[in-house]
UniProtKB/TrEMBL annotation, chain A:
Name assigned to this protein: Beta-ketoacyl synthase-like protein
Residue ranges annotated for the Beta-ketoacyl synthase-like N-terminal domain, each copy included: 23-162
A Pfam family reported for this protein in Swiss-Prot or TrEMBL: Ketoacyl-synt_2
Top-rank taxon, per record: Bacteria
Cross-referenced InterPro entries: Ketoacyl_synth_N, Thiolase-like
Gene Ontology MF annotations: acyltransferase activity
Automatic annotation (TrEMBL), chain B:
Record keyword Transferase present: yes
GO cellular component: cytosol
One Gene Ontology term from the biological process aspect of the record: fatty acid biosynthetic process
Tree of life domain: Bacteria
Organism classification: Bacteria, Pseudomonadati, Bacteroidota, Sphingobacteriia, Sphingobacteriales
Domain Ketosynthase family 3 (KS3) span(s) in chain numbering: 2-392
Species annotation: Sphingobacterium siyangense
MF terms in GO: 3-oxoacyl-[acyl-carrier-protein] synthase activity
InterPro entries (alphabetical): Beta-ketoacyl_synthase, Ketoacyl_synth_AS, Ketoacyl_synth_C, Ketoacyl_synth_N, PKS_Beta-ketoAc_synthase_dom, Thiolase-like
Keyword Transferase attached: yes
Similarity remark: Belongs to the thiolase-like superfamily. Beta-ketoacyl-ACP synthases family.
Extent of the signal sequence: none
Keywords, sorted A to Z: Transferase
Protein name: 3-oxoacyl-[acyl-carrier-protein] synthase-1
Length: 331, 393
């Protein structure tokens, strides 16, 4: 059994502490892509999901010798939504006549992982997961198992979700007619995060992914009992968890089971910081790594106040149709 | 990983049959299922040639004999039919906490596009297009409370789902898994492939020099995989072993493959290595063989590079079913297992003229041969290339 380390991280998300954050939908401003990485011509044709993926992937890859990269794994809840919507719209508007294939070609979920492979000429493992709010965790789980089993040694692991104007219009129109608000506090956003996973530790190592699990919560398998089993397996006590970072499929209206979970532990919700998208947990993953390395990234109201810094164990928990637990430790 | 992952159940539904037995019967009779499109209205109806499952959604629901969520996608219904057959063969009465891995390319697009962009003020319909919704619906229909995930790597989706399922077994995280692929025909994909000018207006002819492109199809294929470790004290029949699952990327172009078939070559090579086999031990190749100019030429090139002068018999069963996209590797995994079970390499329908470069003819007729190891190829958009190797029990 090999250990799993995270040796580099790069994320691209909103910072809701900035003004104008009380909208329903907030897009991410992308940094300009270095023309040495991607020609402006190529960049123009790419959807935002692909661009966000490439920006984060290339930044994370700077930390390693690319010839050592054994594969690329990407998760996405909605995939390439903009191109998918665009092709659907052209089918409807042009009544299936004279369609341009460009949007269709770029609409497949694996476009992001494929384009990164193409850009860096990586012929290794190439995988795309899409499972709603555990899309990133599904991706991490595959990478984790491969590294534990030593099937592969170094993997680029990330997730991305984009907003699409056409989908926003549809949701707004449904919200208007049904009188159901789209959000009651946490805006719908977009973003990406990419990480270098390896079963080799190096001087840049940010933390260790000790263990993880994705499960269906049931009356018999409530978050507390799942956590207890998870901690027992990893020979840890609840007191040894310095922080629980959690997100939810329904951050504004958590279920009773969810709201009461881990109440005796220091826990913070990350979605108030960056908004909501299917793979928003990439932020929690990055934030946890920063906490393990004593970096105060931004001020988060935390019940544990002065415990910030020198963390040993941080647990990430995502509540939804399936719940996930990811335990990160300082190296 | 020799003989550590056993196949104990298979289930499928395609244009040539609603279960495994019907599919085998059609293969044996060389009966294809490609006809003008029936179920989807619009420009392509009654005109474009497709491998359509004959049952309507209502008939599929009736066949399932269970409660099905509202606006259930055809992709999930097809998956549930195939999954139930596989579970029944494996003697599994309740899904319980068995992990489920679904491979699909368009998921619930079939139901979503019918209402787009006027979704009848219905939030459910918005969810339906999510890949993860198709797998969640499948789990719901099967009454599963295990880990459920979905893979979307275009036309290699099901191969990767099977591969990840195998990894779950290897890691000891599960003793058995339900894995496979499903894709329903949709206006979205038919128009997509049409806009790429990849659809043939005739019956597809894989590996023929006069091939004109592909016919799309729909269906689902599922396997129950179990670790032999957990089967030790049972007498459960083993249908075959999954001895390799590989994955590589061509890293050449979003929709076409490199002239040397690099990704395909790497995937096949890696599979042989994992199965601890030398090329001459492969007895039959169930090729990806979509019948597009680009795929068949580059796939044959990769086969030639790897197997040199000793090319095993190969064929594309897409000449029977059409190209079922994300489901194809699940369906063709079962054809590979049937080839082993019946010691029969399947004919590549409508083959007449050998391609010029490379000049590799597929099997024109069924061939009864000793089959111990079958290589099954699946390649897709985004450069995704995967190969599986199934071996005799």
């Amino acid at each position: 059994m090999h250990k799993v380390y995270i040796n580099a991280a790069s994320i691209c998300v909103n910072n809701l502490s900035l003004p104008n954050s009380r909208e329903n939908w907030i897009k991410v401003d992308l940094p300009k892509i270095d023309s040495k990485i991607l020609s402006p011509n190529s960049a123009r044709r790419m959807s935002k999901a692909v661009k966000m993926g490439i920006i984060c992937a290339m930044e994370a890859l700077q930390q390693i010798d690319r010839s050592e990269l054994d594969g690329i794994l990407v998760g996405s809840g909605k995939g390439c939504l903009i191109d998918s919507d665009r092709f659907l719209q052209s089918i409807a508007v042009q009544q299936e006549e004279f369609l341009s294939p460009t949007a269709f070609i770029q609409s497949t979920h694996n476009t992001v992982a494929g384009q990164i492979a193409l850009l860096i000429k990586n012929t290794g493992y190439n995988m795309t997961y899409s499972q709603g709010r555990v899309s990133f965790e599904s991706t991490v789980f595959d990478a984790y198992l491969q590294l534990v089993l030593n099937e592969r040694k170094t993997l680029l692991v990330g997730a991305v979700d984009e907003l699409s104007d056409i989908s926003i219009d549809i949701s707004e129109s449904i919200a208007n007619t049904t009188d159901q608000p789209i959000t009651t506090g946490i805006p719908r956003t977009e973003g990406a995060g990419f990480f270098i996973f390896s079963n080799q530790k190096n001087q840049h190592t940010l933390g260790e992914l000790v263990d993880m699990v994705i499960y269906h919560p049931t009356e018999e398998l409530r978050p507390e009992s799942q956590l207890a089993a998870f901690l027992k397996k990893n020979k840890l006590s609840a007191e040894q968890l310095d922080l629980v970072i959690y997100g939810s499929a329904k951050p504004e209206t958590p279920s009773e089971m969810e709201a009461e979970a881990f109440n005796d532990l220091a826990k913070i919700n990350y979605q108030s910081q960056i908004g909501y998208f299917d793979t928003d947990v990439v932020f929690a993953f990055d934030f946890a790594l920063k906490q393990l390395n004593n970096q105060t990234f931004r001020s988060i109201e935390s019940p544990i106040g002065n415990k910030i810094g020198a963390f040993q164990h941080v647990l990430i928990c995502n509540f939804g149709d399936q719940n996930s637990l990811m335990l990160l430790s300082r190296c | 990983m020799k003989n550590t992952i056993a196949v104990t159940g298979m289930g499928m539904i395609t244009a040539i049959g609603n279960n495994v037995a019907q599919n085998y019967h059609s293969l044996l009779q060389k009966q294809h299922g490609i006809k003008p499109l029936q179920h989807i209205s619009g420009k392509h109806q009654h005109h474009t040639l497709v491998g359509e499952v004959s049952l309507t959604n209502e008939a599929l629901i009736e066949k399932l004999r269970t409660e099905v969520p509202d606006y259930c996608s055809r992709t999930s219904l097809l998956a549930a039919i195939a999954a139930k057959e596989a579970m029944s063969q494996a003697g599994i009465t309740a899904a319980a906490d068995m992990p489920i891995v679904l491979g699909t390319s368009v998921a619930g697009m079939d139901i979503f596009e019918q209402h787009f962009p006027h979704l009848q003020q219905n939030d459910t319909l918005i969810q339906r297009r999510d890949v993860g919704d198709s797998s969640a619906l499948l789990a719901k229909i099967l009454g599963s409370n295990g880990y459920v995930t979905a893979i979307s790597t275009a036309c290699s989706s099901a191969a990767n789902a099977i591969g990840f399922g195998a990894r779950l077994l290897r890691s000891g995280r599960a003793d058995r898994v339900l894995v496979g692929g499903s894709d329903a025909l949709s206006k979205f994909t038919i128009n997509g492939f049409d806009s790429l000018m990849l659809l043939s207006d005739q019956l597809n002819r894989p590996f023929d020099s006069n091939r004109k492109g592909l016919n799309l199809g729909e269906g689902a294929g599922f396997l129950v995989l179990e670790s032999t470790r957990s089967l030790k004290n049972t007498k459960k029949p083993i249908l075959g072993y999954l001895n390799a699952f590989s994955n590589a990327n061509d890293a050449f172009h979003q929709t076409s493959t490199s002239d040397s078939g690099e990704g395909a070559y790497l995937a096949m090579q890696e599979a042989l290595k994992m199965a601890e086999l030398i090329p001459s031990e492969i007895d039959y190749i169930n090729a990806h063989g979509t019948a597009t100019e680009n795929n068949d030429r580059t796939e044959a090139t990769a086969i030639q590079r790897l197997f040199n002068d000793a090319i095993p018999p190969f064929s594309s069963t897409k000449s029977y079913t059409g190209h079922t996209l994300g489901a194809s590797a699940g369906i063709e995994a079962i054809y590979a297992l049937l080839a082993i079970q019946h010691q029969l390499a399947f004919a590549n329908l409508r083959f007449e003229n050998t391609m010029e470069q490379p000049a590799l003819p597929p099997l024109a007729e069924h061939q009864r041969i000793d089959i111990r190891h079958v290589l099954s190829n699946s390649f897709g958009f985004g450069g995704n290339c995967s190969s599986l190797i199934f071996s005799h029990a």
